[in-house]
Structure formats: structure tokens, C-alpha cells
From TrEMBL:
Domain ABC transporter: 2-238
Keywords from the UniProt entry: ATP-binding, Nucleotide-binding, Transport
Gene Ontology molecular functions: ATP binding; ATP hydrolysis activity
Protein name in the entry: Phospholipid/cholesterol/gamma-HCH transport system ATP-binding protein
Species the sequence originates in: Pontibacter akesuensis
PANTHER family cross-referenced by the UniProt entry: INTERMEMBRANE PHOSPHOLIPID TRANSPORT SYSTEM ATP-BINDING PROTEIN MLAF, PROTEIN TRIGALACTOSYLDIACYLGLYCEROL 3, CHLOROPLASTIC
Length: 261
């Protein structure tokens, strides 16, 4: 479980995060949702320690992270897997070398064990036998899968994904979302995903935190989000015509049920 308390961050006098608190649960996909520029990525960076909050704290499974001693922060960092926007694979390395990279950097693992772990992770993301391919030979969805394999290779306890399905067609996007959700549940990982995609919310939103202008305006589950009465969240959800139509069908069915007693 990851807990954040009263996170504030400004850049050049401009407030980007304004006292955000919350809990991200273990074995769940926790979504950071909001429009462009609301501070989702900055919050993610504050949590993993890439940006230092001006105020506030982050705790990983009860261990205080922000401003703690370097060795304790490094110990927590070793347990973090990151899936970056655009996958961020090393273009000059094969798929296998990309996945092996964090194992060489972070874990003191013999070569044979490393190879086994690479093969296990490749199989888990559905890319067995892609070991020798170069990133340039892969589709966008395959690159994301390699990115996921690389993130989970060191047996991460925490997984952070920055817009994991951006740039993918809707079907591939759902497959990537599902893969992340399955891995999260299977290995009991605490996963935080930055997104503005309502499909992801509906498909895999175990827990959702909605940010608006640097503040947390709402939190809840994908079952609860369609019935929210927070105006800014409603505006965000129903900006999309498909979502408006889905809501209308739900409401019509509910009215029908009520009329029939
Ligand atoms: N290093 C930085 N220096 C100055 N301003 C920054 C920095 N990082 C982020 N910002 C600003 O903070 C605000 C929030 O940015 P952030 O990237 O967190 O938004 P976001 O909600 O993730 O948006 P998007 O969905 O478009 O990625 C933006 O106005 C951005 O310009």
C-alpha cells in the first residue's frame, strides 16, 4: 500500500499540486485520472522520488520515503517498476537485453537465472521467442509488452505506469490495460496508472483518484464513477458522446424498472 499525505508542489511560483492525500491499495490498479495539465504526472514523479514535493510525505507499506535516509529510499526504489510513456526501450539493445538491463543494475543475479527470468517475463506478457528482436521491429503494443516485462523483471512490489495505452488502437489498448490489471492481481503489486482514458477507468479502475487543477476532487471505484455528483468529474466523464449514450441507456433501464414497480 502506498500512502500520500498533503502533497504540495509549485514550479516557478505556479501551484501544480495543492495538498493531495490518498491511499493506493495493494493488488489493485489505482488510477490517477484528470484532464491534461492537472498534475497527474507530477504527482506520480513525487511518489517515485523523481520530483521532490515542497510539502507532504509518501509512505510505502509503512516505510516513510520522502526525506528519509538515502539507503532506505534506494531500498524502496529497487522495488519500483516503471512503464514509461512511449515505452522508453533502448533502441540499440535487443528485447532480451532491454529486460535484462534492470536485473543487471538492481539485482545480484547469476547469468543463467537472469536468462530464466527474462524468458519467464517474456512469456508472461505473451512475447515468448521475441528475445532477439530489436525494438524497431516491434509494433506499439509489443513495445508496451516489452516495457511491462522490463518493469516487472526485478519482481517489483510497486508498478507505475504513465499513460500505458497512449498511441495504441482501442483493442490493443484494452489488452495492455488487462495485462497490467492481471499482473497486478496475480503478483499482489500496488499499481498506479496515470490516465485520461475513460475506457481504462471502466475496464480496470479498481480505485480512481480524480485530480482537477492540482487538487483531489473525488475518489472511488469504476462502479461508483458513473453516478458521481461532482460537476467537474461529470464534465470530464461525459465530454465523450459514447459515455453520454451509455449513461442514458443505464438511466432508461433504471426508469423502466422503477415504473414496473
Ligand atoms: N519540471 C517542470 N517545470 C515547470 N513546470 C512543470 C514541470 N513539470 C510539470 N510542469 C507543469 O505542471 C503542470 C502539470 O503537469 P503534468 O505533466 O503533471 O500534467 P498531467 O496532468 O500529467 O497532463 P497530461 O495528461 O497532459 O500529461 C503543467 O502545467 C506543466 O507545465
Amino acid at each position: 500500500m502506498i500512502e500520500i499525505h498533503n502533497i504540495h508542489k509549485s514550479f516557478n511560483g505556479k501551484k501544480v499540486l495543492d495538498g493531495v492525500s490518498g491511499v493506493f491499495e495493494t493488488g489493485k490498479t489505482n488510477l490517477l485520472l484528470g484532464a491534461s495539465g492537472t498534475g497527474k504526472s507530477v504527482l506520480l514523479k513525487c511518489i517515485v522520488g523523481l520530483v521532490k514535493p515542497d510539502l507532504g510525505s509518501v509512505t510505502f507499506d509503512g516505510t516513510y520515503f520522502t526525506n528519509n535516509k538515502l539507503d532506505i529510499r534506494q531500498e524502496i526504489r529497487r522495488k519500483i517498476g516503471m512503464l514509461f510513456q512511449g515505452s522508453a526501450l533502448f533502441d540499440s539493445m535487443t528485447v532480451e537485453e532491454n529486460i535484462e538491463f534492470p536485473l543487471k543494475m538492481l539485482a545480484d543475479m547469476p547469468r543463467d537465472e537472469r536468462k530464466d527470468r527474462v524468458n519467464f517475463c517474456l512469456k508472461r506478457v505473451g512475447l515468448e521467442n521475441a528475445n532477439k528482436k530489436m525494438p524497431s521491429e516491434l509494433s506499439g503494443g509489443m513495445k508496451k509488452r516489452v516495457g511491462i516485462a522490463r518493469a516487472i523483471a526485478p519482481n517489483c512490489t510497486y508498478l507505475f505506469c504513465d499513460e500505458p495505452n497512449s498511441g495504441l488502437d482501442p483493442l490493443t489498448a484494452i489488452k495492455i490495460d488487462e495485462l497490467i490489471a492481471e499482473i497486478t492481481e496475480e503478483y499482489g503489486i500496488t499499481t498506479i496508472i496515470v490516465t485520461h482514458d475513460m475506457n481504462s477507468v471502466i475496464e480496470i479502475g479498481d480505485k480512481i483518484m480524480f485530480l482537477y487543477q492540482g487538487k483531489k476532487l473525488w475518489e472511488g471505484t469504476n462502479d461508483e464513477i458513473m453516478d458521481t455528483d461532482v460537476p467537474k468529474l461529470n464534465e470530464f466523464i461525459f465530454a465523450n458522446r459514447l459515455m453520454r449514450d451509455a449513461k442514458k441507456v443505464d438511466d432508461d433501464e433504471e426508469n423502466e424498472r422503477l415504473l414496473q414497480g
